[in-house]
Amino acid sequence: MSGNEHVLDVRDLSVSFRTARGKVRALRHVDINVPRNKIVGIVGESGCGKSTLINTVLRLLAPNAVIEDGSEVIFQGDDVLKMSNSQLTDLRGQRISMVFQDPMTALNPVISIGTQMTDILYRQKIPMAQKRKRAADMLAQVGIPDAVRRLDDHPHQFSGGMRQRICIAMALMMNPSLLIADEPTTALDVTLEAQIIHLMKELREEFECSMLFVSHNLGLIAELCDEVIVMYAGEVVEQGEVHDLFHRAQHPYTRMLLECDPARIEETRQELPTISGSVPDLIDLPKGCIFSPRCPHRYEPCNESPPDHYAVSDQHSARCFLVRDGR
């Protein structure tokens, strides 16, 4: 795809954090893109760099973060990493919005829902009545009944699922080009989770909005996303279209991650499968492939140098010597 077909292009992104022990290399040479009107899922274990990636896209990193030279985050033709503070203010909320992980803490408990929603429209010089109508319309679109009356309610008067719907409505108030969802169903039960996923599918069609959906739940990724990016210890190890990747996973980490999904286990067993070993120290990285200390298929090249991304098909690649060597 050409660049103008992408809402977001992340190119050669490397991010480190300065610590007393040394430099933590949280992201290394990450390349991803989000096509227009597509949902791209990012999946991986805790600590793989998912949150660092989305915080870099929004330039919301901690003061000890260092974005390495050569990194680019191109959003609709502009490099976010070169934006001024005023440009970032115009970007966040208007052109890129975010739905956070926990709806219980994402809303201010002492301010009414209507006030929180109309405050988002502070840049628009329109009457308050018009802003409240816009807020009520958005609540109705995400399935909040009696939306006009409920504008005056406070967050504690809504269930967890309703609060997450409100957070999604708030994120879409400015009709952004990109919606980032950071594990938005973690705090919800499976029934509400299914409702939120169905809602996000409908909203993608209605608003023609691209989405970057971050999750550790493979089932949600398979259900919602068009494309999948698999991350491990700060690197993208595999990416491709969702059906292709789930049925023809090439990287050993991706295959082992899929085998650990409880929904894919057919026989009854006492213990859930796990990936043996632990995530490497990001201060003292292994010499070769980042996954080689835990990989049951490692062989000579894996210990010598990091692999490049090798094409499995036009839309599918994996960072693994097994793909390169056809093994």
What's the topology here?
Elements: E1 6-18, E2 23-35, E3 39-43, H1 50-57, E4 65-67, E5 72-75, E6 78-79, H2 85-91, E7 96-99, H3 103-106, H4 113-119, H5 128-141, H6 147-150, H7 160-171, E8 178-182, H8 190-207, E9 210-215, H9 218-224, E10 227-232, E11 235-241, H10 242-247, H11 252-259, E12 310-313, E13 316-318, H12 321-324
Parallel strand pairs: 3-9, 3-10, 7-8, 8-9
Antiparallel strand pairs: 1-2, 1-4, 1-5, 5-6, 10-11, 11-13, 12-13
Explain briefly what this protein structure is:
By secondary structure, the protein is an alpha/beta fold. The chain contains twelve helices and 13 strands. The chain folds into two domains: 3-95 and 174-324, Rossmann fold; 104-173, no CATH class.
Task: Describe, in plain words, how this protein is organized in 3D.
The chain has 327 residues and is an alpha/beta fold. The protein has two domains: 3-95 and 174-324, P-loop containing nucleotide triphosphate hydrolases (Rossmann fold); 104-173, no CATH class. The protein contains twelve helices and 13 strands. The strands form two sheets. An eight-stranded mixed sheet has the order 7-8-9-3-10-11-13-12, with helices on both faces. Strands 1, 2, 4, 5 and 6 form a five-stranded antiparallel sheet that branches. Strand 10 (227-232) and strand 11 (235-241) form a beta hairpin. Helix 4 (113-119) crosses helix 5 (128-141), helix 5 (128-141) crosses helix 7 and helix 7 (160-171) runs parallel beside helix 8. The longest helix has 18 residues, at 190-207. The protein is globular and about 70 Å long. It starts with 5 loop residues before the first strand and ends with a helix.
